[in-house]
Amino acid sequence: MPKLKTNRAAAKRFKKTAGSGFKRSSSHMRHILTKKSSKRKRQLRGTSMVHGTDVGRLRRLLPYS
Whole-number mean pLDDT of the chain? Predict the structure, then answer.
């Protein structure tokens, strides 16, 4: 069997966790920050988990993670 290629775009955006899940960072924090409230920017700062329905799709994109 040939080697499977890792999707490089997904590899830069998602990290595998020990419990077979994936963590991701929030969007909307790159630009146009002046109109967003401090509370909204603070909540977007952290990481969150990928939803369970999308984990199977990510496993296909990241076969060796």
Answer: 95
